[in-house]
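Support request from a user on the community tier.

User writes: "When I paste my structure tokens into the form, the page sometimes reloads and wipes my input. The last time it worked, I copied everything first. Here is what I submitted, just in case something in the input itself triggers the reload:"
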């Protein structure tokens, strides 16, 4: 209750301060109105007002992205019961969580409960993309799968890039931020242009360049840390050969060259070596690492969408093809200290392709959506762990190959029961096959004394600091080498039903309720550190599917000057998949087990209201009650399963999240302007299942003001993010010497120039 009162107090005081201190005239065109504009979503594979869609959904439009200066998905903090974080082990690797369900590690072979969908195509765990030239970002909470190509139990994040319009238009954005940071500055150059070439052909091109000198300061050598140089190119071609046929082709290419993780180390238990004497305050941005590390990655994608209108059911046939390839080569200082304790080079390639066919039609007594998809993925991964001479002087190698084939049929039928009441019935059937060849990091450890085959090599006279990449490894995963001690294949199948009711009254109010079942794929852990002969239960797997059954009841009310949305949900999880973290002699030990059953419930409130013609207030609140109902695995590692496990907090399940904000329009001479302030809060959460690593609570204050020329072709903005400089970690993993806790950036202050022509 005290936290809720805190929310209301902050919003009330902010409102009073803003109104009482600014003497301004109302402007004719409102930027704040972008926050209450009608939101169009494609969550059900058709364009419709978000307020009539019978699920809990939050959409950020292109105008809102521009006004709020959203650079990437991680900066969206105003969605209840949602955190779009990076894991911190390497740039761009997401750790998204919705309603307490998320991908709680950087192991690439694990399927995330939160699906990333880019321009309609499932891209697996995905990467954290930039926010330039994006038409909308849609966050769907709850099980998805009966209307889209991939099943996901927690929800989905849909990122839709812009298409060329009916008139030629161009936009140039220049930004420079990092003022007051302990490290260097960051610059952005972004350009988009496009429009019609002929009556039937349109094109659009996008360029994004970011040169970040590194926000952090490494006290080990007084250098900037966190540098990133990234480029992105995207081209779109839209061809309409006839009134009933549309062809849309998007090609994207991006590259990144930057530093390794900004790793902190601090003590988590009374018995660890306390980072070998390094003293760091976990509530500071203290950084002292002897290895800068690096990240080099590149990604290419192609999306082809063909839509054909047909007479049958006044319907449409859609074909969607996606092809994605991603490569990463990185090096990280995992010990987070000024000593060489544990450094980890890694490399991976991840290629996937998918085909999706859909038919949607409307008949006299029902509307129907039918779909079939296939998805194929090839993942190759090599990880090294380099231990110095003081810790044995060894090189550990692990990883392997994973091939996945998935096919699914999905269908949804909407049946009007009256003019205002509609029932929807959905079903999804999924078949999945996985084949894996794993080289455990510990494979052949018993052969070290005899010189037999092993993935562990003594460094001898080699300087461990010179080993920077798996290309220098003594065995090569990518050429088929290293000792493969686990080879297996398995298959999983599932059927996911959904039933829902939607009632829309005459007062712009939507009432809905549904019950849906979803499944998270079973699979394998390719980061295996277990010695299979001694602890086979901690091996690569396979682990079983995770099942969730969700009931949700909601109300969506459209007002003349805003909207109010409320949802209550309750989820029952069976055979929960958990990534368990333990401290081991060669760094973190991670293994995946089905640990038991759990339940989650909560409420979500979303309010946007225009208090005056030029003043908009928004408030979002999410509560979550997550707990184990039954535990079937010794999570604490004390040898018994008892109430100690049942009392554990579920990882990354924040009890309370909220955000509150104000947006104000005014005139400054013949220029118009928009000022805004927002405050976001998230409770502290456990990162690991044993609750040893705790990520602290988040209190983020953002603000900014933009000035628009009389023609509105040019704007100049000043913005501040995380103005209270709150410390945020991507993860806090227990290790034998303390913790691996990569830091995210703190306060960012910047300026921006935008020119439309």
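"...and here is what came back when it finally went through:"
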């Amino acid at each position: 209750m005290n936290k809720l009162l805190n929310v209301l107090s902050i919003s009330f005081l902010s409102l009073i301060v803003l109104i009482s201190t600014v003497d301004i005239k109302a402007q004719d065109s409102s930027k704040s109105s972008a926050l209450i504009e009608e939101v169009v979503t494609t969550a059900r594979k058709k364009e419709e007002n978000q307020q009539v869609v019978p699920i809990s959904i939050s959409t950020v439009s292109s105008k809102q992205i521009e006004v709020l200066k959203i650079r990437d998905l991680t900066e969206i903090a105003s969605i209840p019961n949602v955190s779009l974080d990076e894991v911190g082990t390497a740039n761009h690797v997401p750790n998204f969580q919705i309603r307490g369900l998320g991908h709680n590690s950087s192991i690439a072979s694990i399927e995330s409960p939160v699906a990333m969908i880019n321009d309609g195509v499932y891209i697996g765990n995905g990467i954290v993309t930039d926010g330039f030239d994006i038409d909308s970002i849609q966050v769907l909470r709850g099980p998805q799968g009966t209307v889209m190509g991939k099943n996901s139990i927690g929800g989905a994040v849909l990122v839709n890039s812009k298409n060329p319009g009916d008139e030629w238009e161009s936009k140039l954005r220049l930004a420079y931020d990092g003022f007051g940071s302990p490290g260097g500055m960051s610059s952005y150059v972004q350009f988009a242009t496009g429009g019609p070439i002929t009556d039937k052909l349109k094109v659009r091109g996008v360029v994004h360049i970011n040169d970040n000198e590194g926000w952090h300061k490494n006290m080990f050598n007084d250098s900037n840390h966190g540098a990133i140089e990234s480029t992105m190119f995207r081209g779109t071609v839209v061809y309409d050969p006839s009134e009933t046929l549309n062809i849309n082709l998007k090609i994207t290419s991006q590259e990144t060259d930057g530093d390794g993780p900004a790793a902190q180390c601090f003590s988590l238990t009374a018995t660890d070596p306390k980072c070998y004497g390094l003293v760091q305050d976990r509530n500071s941005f203290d950084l002292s690492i002897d290895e800068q590390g690096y990240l080099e990655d590149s990604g290419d994608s192609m999306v082809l969408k063909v839509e054909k209108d047909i007479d049958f059911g006044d319907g449409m046939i859609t074909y969607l093809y996606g092809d994605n390839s991603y490569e990463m080569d990185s090096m990280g200082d995992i010990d987070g200290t000024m000593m060489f304790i544990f450094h980890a080079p890694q490399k991976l390639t991840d290629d996937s392709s998918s085909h999706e066919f859909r038919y949607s039609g409307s008949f006299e007594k029902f509307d129907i959506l039918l779909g079939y998809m296939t998805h194929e993925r090839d993942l190759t991964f090599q990880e090294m762990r380099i231990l110095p001479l003081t810790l044995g002087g060894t090189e550990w190698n692990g990883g392997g190959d994973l091939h996945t084939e998935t096919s699914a049929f999905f269908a949804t039928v909407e049946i009007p029961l009256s003019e205002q009441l509609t029932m929807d019935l959905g079903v999804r059937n999924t078949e999945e096959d996985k084949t894996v060849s794993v080289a455990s990091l510990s494979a052949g450890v018993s052969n070290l004394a005899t010189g037999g085959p092993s993935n562990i090599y003594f460094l001898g006279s080699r300087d461990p600091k010179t080993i920077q990449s798996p290309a220098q490894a003594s065995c090569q995963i990518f050429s088929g080498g290293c000792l493969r001690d686990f080879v297996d294949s398995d298959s999983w199948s599932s059927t996911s039903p959904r039933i829902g009711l939607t009632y829309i009254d005459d007062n712009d109010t939507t009432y809905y309720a549904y019950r849906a079942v979803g499944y998270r794929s079973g699979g394998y852990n390719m980061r295996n550190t277990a010695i299979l002969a001694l602890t086979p239960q901690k091996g690569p797997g396979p682990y079983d599917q995770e099942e969730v059954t969700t009931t949700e009841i909601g109300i969506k009310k459209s007002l003349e000057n805003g909207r109010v949305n409320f949802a209550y949900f309750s989820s029952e999880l069976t055979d929960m998949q958990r990534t368990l973290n333990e401290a081991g002699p060669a760094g973190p030990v991670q293994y995946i087990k089905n640990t038991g059953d759990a339940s989650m419930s909560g409420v979500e409130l979303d309010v946007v209201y225009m208090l005056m013609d030029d003043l908009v207030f928004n408030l979002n609140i999410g509560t979550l009650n997550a707990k184990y109902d039954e535990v079937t695995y010794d999570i604490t590692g004390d040898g018994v399963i008892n109430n100690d496990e049942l009392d554990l907090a579920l990882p990354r399940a924040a009890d309370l999240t909220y955000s509150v904000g104000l947006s104000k329009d005014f005139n400054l001479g013949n220029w118009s302007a928009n000022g805004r302030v927002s405050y976001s809060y998230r409770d502290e959460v456990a990162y690991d299942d044993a609750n040893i690593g705790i990520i602290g609570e988040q209190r983020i204050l953002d603000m900014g003001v933009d000035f628009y020329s009389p023609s509105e072709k040019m704007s100049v903005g000043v913005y501040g993010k995380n103005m209270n400089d709150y410390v945020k970690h991507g993860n806090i993993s227990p290790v034998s010497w303390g913790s691996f806790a990569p830091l995210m950036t703190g306060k960012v202050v910047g300026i921006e120039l935008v020119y439309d022509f």
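Agent notes: The reload is a front-end session timeout and is unrelated to the input. The chain is about 5% helix and 55% strand. The longest strand covers residues 394-416. Escalated to web team.
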